[in-house]
Amino acid sequence: MDISVKYDPKSVEEKRYHYWMKQNYFSSNPDDRIPYTIIMPPPNITGVLHIGHFLNNTIQDVLIRRARMKGYNVCWIPGTDHASIATEAKVVDQLKKQGLSKNFLGRKKFLDHVLEWYKKHKNIIFDQLKKLGCSCDWDRTQFTMNPILSKSVIKIFIDLYERGYIYRGYDVVNWDPEAKTTISDEEVIYKERIGKLYYLKYKIKGENNYTIVATTRPETIFGDTALCFHPDDARYYHLKGKYAKIPIINRYIPIIQDSYVDKNFGTGCLKITPAHDLYDKNIADKHKLDIIDIFNEDATLNEKALHYKGMDRFYVRKKIIEELNQLGAIENIEKCNHTIGFSERTFSVVEKKLSLQWFLKMKDMAIPAIEAVKNGNIKFYPKKFKKIYFQWMNKIRDWNISRQLWWGHRLPVFYYGKKTNDFVVAENLEEALKKAKYKTKNTCLSYDKIWQDTDVLDTWFSSWLLPLSVFNGIRYPHNHEICYYYPTEDIVTGSDILFFWVARMIMSGLFFQKKIPFKKVFFTGIIRDSKNKKISKSLNNSPNTIDLIKRFGADAVRMGLMSHTSAGKDFHFDEKICIQGRNFSNKIWNAFRLIQSWKIEENNKYIPEYYQIAVIWLKNRFYYVLEMFEKNFKKYKLDESLMILYKFIWYDYCSCFLEIIKPISVNKCIPKMVYLNTIKFFEKMLKLLHPYMPFLSEEIWNLIKKRKPKEALIISSWPKKKSYDYDILVSFEKVIKIISKIRNIRNKSNIPFKKSLVLFYVRKEEKKGYDSIILKLANLDKIVTVIKKPKNIPFFSFFLGSDQFFLSLDKEYHVSHIDIMNIEKKIQYFSNLLSIIRKNLSNDKYVNSVPNNLLLKEKKKESDTLIKISQFKEYLEYLKNNI
Known about the structure:
Layout: H1 9-22, E1 35-39, H2 51-69, E2 73-77, E3 79-80, H3 84-97, H4 102-105, H5 107-132, E4 142-143, H6 147-162, E5 166-176, E6 181-183, E7 188-204, E8 210-215, E9 226-229, E10 243-245, E11 252-257, E12 269-272, H7 278-287, H8 313-326, E13 330-343, E14 351-360, H9 363-374, E15 379-381, H10 385-394, E16 399-400, E17 402-403, E18 413-415, E19 423-425, H11 429-440, E20 451-452, E21 456-457, H12 460-463, H13 466-469, H14 480-485, E22 488-494, H15 498-513, E23 518-524, E24 527-528, H16 545-552, H17 554-563, E25 571-572, H18 576-596, E26 599-601, H19 609-634, H20 638-661, E27 669-671, H21 672-689, H22 694-704, H23 726-749, E28 757-762, H24 771-778, E29 780-786, E30 796-800, E31 803-809, H25 817-841, H26 844-849, H27 852-881
Parallel strand pairs: 1-2, 3-4, 9-11, 15-23, 22-23, 24-25, 26-27, 28-29
Antiparallel strand pairs: 5-6, 5-14, 7-8, 7-10, 7-13, 9-12, 10-11, 14-16, 17-21, 18-19, 18-20, 28-31, 30-31
Helix pairs in contact: 1-22, 9-10, 9-15, 16-17, 17-18, 18-20, 19-20, 19-21, 19-23, 19-24, 20-21, 21-22, 23-24, 25-27
């Protein structure tokens, strides 16, 4: 076994992943074990995975690998999401570069191009996940457009429609003029912008005076159907029941009252444009106003805009101000801050637009979903997201589920006439024709007289069903798999899709299966770049994830991410965290190489005391660390668990334990008992490390000794808790502090480690329990117990609690002129420092101006410096006498 070479993550990771796959360790089928199921939030097929995806999937893999070692029947279902809007936009853009358009190609050929895109990017995404080390059940890979999931989506739509939950109607929606589709509220990003507030004059009918209306969007006057003021606003009482004339159009509209109006905004008199503002639409419904839609699908103005027909909305704004100015209809223009909504997918400015869409009633579904989180059946990590969840759920609106796209689950709606209600909802054309014939009583209706809706369902309409549909629980609600694996255990996701996905999955699970879909939700923080922007595909600001793995290794990337993530907290990505991970990998690898270089001493009659103490301490320390690790892990403080383990491996095991037991003999022999315990706890350590750093841990596990496939680390048993003696840990911690103090004195005084020292320990009783450890690690000649400070011996002193220690050179120490010069330099340095301190303390202005606590610190610094000078002078005199 050659382990002398430097650790090479690339060769290890490829080999180990192939080994896991070949042995089928990731697969799951129902059996008599307790299931542990996670559904991967399916990444969009819009490109490669960014560093945020790596964080999310590393967390899932950590949970999965630990559960597998705990003996659960682990089932981690991977998949991808078809992402209707984003994917269609990507493919349209790609075709545009080739001089093609989706309308030119037609629906069928366009979808062929989308499928090619899907196949390419699905493979890229899965390859990234494998390189990261994700132990998914690849036999269960899902795609939100695959046949089983598609049939489930259609079945649910039909079921909800027939039960009265889905309806078709007009409402004001968010319209993306670039994608030419409606989008949800959660897909609109609002940003503050500096704009202009235009004060427009509306002439009062039959009078020679005006009322002034403030608006940021003068181009929408073509859709005005009323002016409105607050019922308590005395400024406008005289306008009650009157009419006003819209400039340019010269159409009269009523002046009404409604408590929705903010008296303090603008002039307090609001223009009502119901087709392009949700609140205006509510007022219009209440007062039975006309509703006039003035926009085309691409946000140009339609025929209602008269001579501005076909022009872009922002161009019209500029031109209409010129016309209004000429008409004398502008009272004033001033700058203002206002909020503008942008499409998350295309970045175009979103329009509020009246549109005929399909909606799903949500209020009844929300009630049990609120209760499930409130009563603790579903737990959020961190808890703070419960408040946000309740706020949204209590104000929930009907879900606009239709999208004006070609890529996605096509609406199972078939039309047979021109009237609004001339449609049926059916699984396919054949069923639709039967229903249409029955509904119309027209037995002569034929296939060529019936057509399917061109719209598709919102992407999230398939995603909200995933915990059910991946086990075919929609079509077969009581099948063996849904009964075994459902509800799932954890969902790991970003807080930005709490409403898109998490809340809706809770609603669908309780509505269709009468059970919660998962027990715990872990919200990852958002990874941000150096400019504090969220790392995302759309911003293209993620580091190249595969490049990170090539440079540092997957374990290093995983360890770096996990050590800096805390539930719900954002953090800034820096490559330094990967370097830290790589250094940790190398530390573990080199520790293993060191152990393997030792030889076992079979027939050792005498085992030095420090060996025995070290083994006892390591055993107690490990079980203490295991308890702390588990306690934090159960609270989903995965970063804290990792850091507990990191410190144990780096400091306790490598820097302390291995240093204590490291052979001092030339032949590098170590007692068999010590060696076996060294390996035993190294293996236990690898088990705790495996979920976080699977490749390195599995590699070393199999290098320690040859193992059969059933003995692989990935399926080994998790260490069991055992009792430990906490007093031993406290005592040993003090020993480490003593050693650290002595080493610091060596460094400051330039005393080489090879030169032995004598430690005088002022203690009441002769206790030598850990002296052998101190002697070895501090390289002392001896430890002398004294009742008080020894006389006539040069020393350096230090305290630990109430115990005092004096450190002295032994008699054989050879003094050089360099030693003397170094000590003289130190005396000079502290003398200069003392002069500065005393200069400050003698300055009345300084003494009277600084806070009392700083003055006390300065005085203590003076006292400490005097002690150091005295010690160094005594040490210098000793050196000169012994040169």
